[in-house]
Amino acid sequence: MLRDDIKTATITSMKAGDKDRTATLRLIGAKIKDRDIEARTGKAPENDDDLVIEVLQKMAKQRRESITMYEDGGRQELADQEKAELAVIEEFLPAMLDEAATKAAIEAIKAEVGAESIKDMGRVMGELKKRHGTELDMGLASGLVKASLS
Fold it and tell me: In the chain, how many domains are there?
């Protein structure tokens, strides 16, 4: 399980004395615990790895946005720190589908659902998230679905 891999990596980095990596891994662990608490009251994914991947994807997205903001603001040292954190987070994320594979998945779902207009975007996106949610950049997928249905 992914949760166990993160705990093992945390222990290993602590033993190695890698403070930056340890801090990032502890941050990941804290976010996962926060999400566990939220899941008690709301709807939790059936698979534990899906929950962990969801947390990691959100963290990665936040880091990418921060990197852009820091670089635009001329704060390269902070951008470098965010890049280092992003590298650690991405180690645990599954490989994402590239644009061509995403388009192929969209076309397959579009044909299956019978989607023809932009009105069907919600159905296509819902099915896409259900089948490929952990391996897709939903922002990219949304734009591709919109373009495909227009």
Answer: 2
Tell me: the pLDDT tens digits for 30-65?
999 998 888 787 766 667 777 888 889 889 989 999
Q: What does the DSSP 8-state code read for residue 119?
A: G
87 and 110 co-located in one domain? no
Say how far residue 23 (Cα) sits from the centre of its chain: 20
Task: Name, in order, each residue with C-beta under 8 angstroms of 21's C-beta and a sequence gap of 6 or more.
Answer: 13, 88
List the structure tokens of 123: 């159905």
CA distance 146 to 131: 18
Q: Which domain holds residue 139?
A: 99-149
Residue from 54, 12, 62 nearest 34 by CA: 54
Q: Supply the DSSP string of 45-90, one letter for each residue.
A: PSSHHHHHHHHHHHHHHHHHHHHHHHHHTT-HHHHHHHHHHHHHHH
Helix 2-16 vs helix 48-72: crossing angle, to nearest 10: 50
Query: What is the pTM assigned to this prediction?
Result: 0.72
Tokens 């670089």: give the residue: 71
HSE value, Cβ hemisphere, 13 Å, CA-based, for 142:
4
